[in-house]
Amino acid sequence: MIDIHSHILPAIDDGSPDLETSVKMAQIAVSEGITEMIATPHFIEKDKETDKNTIIQKVEELNRELAHRSIDLTILPGQEIFLTPGVPDLYDRGKLLTLCDGDKYLLVELPLMSIPLYALDVIHSLKLKGLNVILAHPERNIEIARNPGRLREFIKIGALVQVNSLTLFGVLGKNAKHTAENIINSGMAHFIATDCHTARTRSPRIKRIMKFLTEDAAKLLLKDNPSKVLKGKDIDSKLEAYDGKDIGFFKKLTVFIDSIKNAREVRHDF
Ligand SMILES: [Fe+2]
Prior knowledge:
Elements: E1 2-6, H1 19-31, E2 36-39, E3 42-44, E4 48-49, H2 52-68, E5 74-77, E6 80-82, H3 87-92, E7 105-109, H4 119-128, E8 132-136, H5 142-146, H6 151-156, E9 160-164, H7 165-168, H8 174-185, E10 191-193, H9 215-231, H10 249-269
Parallel strand pairs: 1-2, 2-5, 3-6, 6-7, 7-8, 8-9, 9-10
Antiparallel strand pairs: 3-4
Fe (ii) ion binds at residues 5, 7, 80, 136, 195.
């Protein structure tokens, strides 16, 4: 399996605090069947602007340490970028690190409490620059939790969707878990990743995901699509999401009832 979202690099953001924790996280990842992991420290404009060269250097150091300890995991460089109107300009000025430093995929996160009015425009301008934008854990956004169908607006303009395995395990609360299931079952997910931060509660656990998915879905979301990111190949946001076709009738019915409820709630909001 390939994990495209992690905070395994030591002492750079709110993830691993030191090298020993990073090594423990790597050992857990290997035991979970992860072979490659993209390190994606947070980048927040004018707040926590992690330096791309520092990330690349820390990735090399951690890979050396893992090889030295015979831990069979390859770390690749990346960043998780908080979406602000300045992101396209920051990219043009060479401040941002794309996934695997391949100039093809950008992992971005929305604020938790809203979908900013500029979000679609910014993603559209990034697309025009030839970048594929991956939305990190949209299930944690309150507006998407209220109406997961809003993700379609992003998918329509080419954005890809990454759901957290830990959300599906319930680590981030019932509401986020329910939204994550809804996103996957409605055919709007392209990736599942760990977004691991520690060697404890938010560790790189993913194997148990097989209980939630069919074999085909797991292959697409954990292997095939992530491998395209590593190889710099394009993914069609409309065609290459898991289509939810394997889920049972009752689950589909639940998703349908939820979507009606959500639509009503949104109407009441106006
Ligand atoms: Fe993250």
